[in-house]
Amino acid sequence: MIKVSDVFEVKYGHSLELNRLTMVAPSAGVAFVSRKMDDNGISAYVEKIPGVEPASAGSLSCALGGNGVLTTHLQEQPFYVGRDVSLLKPRFELTKAQILYYCMCIKANRFRYSYGRQANRTLKDLLIPDLHSFPAWVGPASAGVLDSFATRLEGLLAFAADDLHYVAIDDRELVPLAEVFDVRYGHSLELNRLEQVSSGEGGVPFVSRKMGDNGVAAFVKLVDGLEPAPAGDLSCALSGNGVLSTFVQDRPFYTAFHIACLRPRFSFSHEQLLYYCACIWANRHRYSFGRQANRTLRDLLLPAPSKLPGWVDGGLSRVVRELASPLEQLKTNQSGTYVS
Fold this sequence. Notes:
alpha+beta; Adenine-n6-DNA-methyltransferase TaqI, Chain A, domain 2; 3 domains; 4-stranded antiparallel beta sheet; 6 helices
């Protein structure tokens, strides 16, 4: 581990105030970077200020305070910064992948700045990995990461490539969930009583009330005498912070406590099922203050199968194609290097 100041020249930024600058279109101005956590930290584009030189492209912006303290971005165009934003310039040549990894490492220290503590004086002394300690996938192997993501996109395209079936129940716009899905309570298993294995060893996904990773908390061995829920069912959390988190499970699975299994009553495409997941999740506001969905899930109103929006047809395929284009550009540009 080495200090941030061993890798980057750390300087305080311009400390400009956006309300005193003239905002212009992105094509005609200089990026104004604040402590904003998203959009690469860019809040606006402003007219160039006479006598104030923008920070050079290839520098990093790092928030020194606020909710996004230590949010760090690589800026690929000249830029100004607002208050409490530091500028980090690489002291030696680094690839884009290496710089982005350092951005992540710096941000990983944000837990040190809870309760409003700022990083003004201590940023330069934070410890980050030496170049020789980088994971193999960061350096020249970063192309492999992009190739892996491209492969996953292809898998998504195959996942979406099925025919849509618009089923007419009657003329109603909305119908109870129980008319679209057969609602069953899950297995109510406890993970600490199961034997965990890897997915490659034939493990069965164990679905909990987890909001990410498709709800899968682990992979476990098949339980004698207990049949997993079939692939194609939806898992739906009935309580917890992620109440109504709903996922399409593409392989047989077990469930934890307070998980419902929703089996489609009709033949649906994956895209239609994903749309229904979003519709169920949109009702989560009804279950604030710890209210559970055990008894009322089946009565939630969803769009009738014949009334699904037209854009659902091919929606996932369009998203994959939109992601594929910038991915190819990333693969082309990944070899770029930056140095102060």
